[in-house]
Amino acid sequence: MVVWSEACVIYSSLGSMRIARPSNMLPKVAQEEQLWNGLKHGSKLRMLDDMGCLQVHDDQVELKSLLNNNKHSEYCAPLTSFDWNEVEPKRLGTSSIDTTCTIWDIEKEMVDTQLIAHDKEVYDIAWGGAGVFASVSADGSVRVFDLRDKEHSTIIYESTKPDTPLLRLGWNKQDPRYMATILMDSSKVVVLDIRVPTVPVAELQRHQACVNSVAWAPHSPCHICTAGDDSQVPSLFMCILNYISGVLANIMTKSSHCFQKCERNLGHRF
Predict the structure, then answer these.
(1) pTM surpassing 0.70?
(2) Which fold is adopted by the domain 78-238?
(3) DSSP for 117-146, written as a single string
């Protein structure tokens, strides 16, 4: 996994702890002083089939809570990813192979909402606002959900190759109109504009092997970082606004020419 940092950071060990099962996602830092009294740095560590929230002190790390949505067993369907809501830090979203996305209330340590998000396994989830998130799945689609209307979702993109899963999703925090996703066994990064569903605005291809992670820069709407099986981590600069302006201008020009042609063929003006 690749994660942006806004500054050069030197890491040192504050402490360690043993966990029952191996973790498979890099911890992220939440906003300070917004969760749990006395919490200096709120971080989270995703484990194989449940969610552990760790409390980081000056000299040690301890398990604050273990979130499990299965009330009848200590085990639940394996989780695949998670994302912390930066606008409302008490909200945490997780995705699972059981086709669901779960929204947790960290302060109450309980489930807020659980949605059947896709037809197949959900591989990643990303917040785009306080109550809006998106997910990608083995069904090859990117879907956007609004918690104010839990019965419906919007399909933003579907893989052009049948039965090709989408593995990772990144939502541009500086410009929420854009998100990026990667396909299984593909070296391309697909950039999407939520205003123009189903049609990618760009396809970035700088890797010589499969891409396995993607992250937008926290300080810039035009920078995106990717990691791949070729051991490369290129930082890509995208003049997105200029690119989109050109695309939309081209669409409007073609539409105008189409109407003019119709007028001539029909012999009258609309």
Answers:
(1) yes
(2) Methylamine Dehydrogenase; Chain H (2.130.10)
(3) --SS-EEEEEE-SSSEEEEEETTSEEEEEE
